[in-house]
Each structure stands twice: as structure tokens, then as C-alpha cells.
TrEMBL record:
<dbReference type="InterPro" id="IPR004360">
    <property type="entry name" value="Glyas_Fos-R_dOase_dom"/>
</dbReference>
<dbReference type="InterPro" id="IPR029068">
    <property type="entry name" value="Glyas_Bleomycin-R_OHBP_Dase"/>
</dbReference>
<dbReference type="Pfam" id="PF00903">
    <property type="entry name" value="Glyoxalase"/>
</dbReference>
<protein>
    <submittedName>
        <fullName>Putative glyoxalase superfamily protein PhnB</fullName>
    </submittedName>
</protein>
<dbReference type="InterPro" id="IPR037523">
    <property type="entry name" value="VOC_core"/>
</dbReference>
<feature type="domain" description="VOC">
    <location>
        <begin position="2"/>
        <end position="121"/>
    </location>
</feature>
Length: 132
């Protein structure tokens, strides 16, 4: 089995696509007006309109309702990314912080309120883990 993508359901595909394009520096593939993918070498972030929910099953998902999943983005320099995200990110949860497990992390919310963790491992041991 292979994890193919993580999908966010949103009421505003265009806003969320633009946000993640600016955060990642990757141009999204717009497969349909209701769906886009931000593809990286290690994973895909899919963004779908809430208009697609009936295709999944009644009440299968709800936009703006996530309070338990964190999107982790590995970067070379979290402090440099923090500087570039000023004016892009509206809500920072913290400033770059070195975590006890060896990652330097910056947490913020996307326009739909989803939590995003941008991190850089600071030790050889931490570089072996994805996020934590």
C-alpha cells in the first residue's frame, strides 16, 4: 500500500490553492475547477471543493472542521521560511521553536484553519524522523 495524497475539503478552492502554492513554491495542477493537487517529490496535497462531498457520501466530510490533523512540511531552513511567510500566513500558532525531539518547528493555520507544521531537523537523529 502507498499513501497517494492528503486531501483538504474547502469551500474556496482558489484561495487554498493560492495559499499552498505560495507556502510551498509549487504550482498546483488544476485537474478540474473543483480539484487541484500540489505535488512534491515526497507527497501530494489534494484540495477539493466542498461541492464534491455528495460524491463521497452524505456528510462524509466538512470544510473548516479539522482540529486533529497536522500537515508537516520538511524544509531546509525553518527560520528563513518564517521570514518569507510574513504577509502570506494570517495566523501563526508559534514562532520557530526548537522542540525537545530535535526539530525546529513553525506552526501556522491555513485559510481554512488547518494546522501546518513547517520543520527542519536540527540533529542527525531528528533527520531520521518525519515530523514529531
Amino acid at each position: 500500500m502507498q499513501l497517494a495524497a492528503t486531501r483538504i475539503i474547502t469551500d474556496d478552492v482558489d484561495t487554498l490553492v493560492t495559499f499552498y502554492e505560495r507556502v510551498t513554491g509549487v504550482t498546483a495542477a488544476r485537474l478540474h475547477p473543483l480539484f487541484a493537487e500540489v505535488r512534491t517529490d515526497t507527497g501530494t496535497l489534494a484540495i477539493a471543493s466542498s461541492a464534491t462531498i455528495p460524491l463521497l457520501g452524505e456528510d462524509a466530510a466538512a470544510p473548516h472542521a479539522n482540529r486533529s490533523v497536522i500537515l508537516d512540511l520538511l524544509v531546509d531552513d525553518v527560520d528563513a521560511i518564517y521570514a518569507t511567510l510574513q504577509g502570506v500566513v494570517e495566523t501563526f500558532v508559534n514562532e520557530p521553536t526548537t522542540m525537545p525531539w530535535g526539530n525546529r518547528s513553525l506552526l501556522f493555520r491555513d485559510p481554512d484553519g488547518n494546522l501546518v507544521n513547517v520543520f527542519t531537523p536540527t540533529t542527525a537523529d531528528a533527520s531520521k524522523r518525519v515530523a514529531l
